[in-house]
Amino acid sequence: VLVAGSGAGGVTGAYTAAREGLDVTLVEATEKFGGTTAYSGGGGMWFPCNPVLMRGGAEDTIDDALEYYTAVVGDRTPRALQETYVRSGAPLIEYLESDELLKFSL
After folding, report:
1. Cα 79 from Cα 70, distance rounded (Å)
2. Can you give the residue ranges of every domain in the chain?
């Protein structure tokens, strides 16, 4: 698997492919590792209703997350894509947390 980009999406994709037993090559076009995620204020990611947030006491709901996301993004992306992002974050974090070597914190 060839993964283009070392941002959060690229690294997660490369990790997942390797974890599933595939050979992976990750390439980055710039001289810095991290892609645009490196500019996101510390590399943070927003995945509403994920297990880390919920264990930390967050009062998060998918409906609230969709309302917030739509307010911020508006119609610049299709509603179906926004819903897919909001609904897919928690299962992604659950999958990543199933690897005891990965630790998430608030």
Report:
1. 8
2. 1-44, 46-106
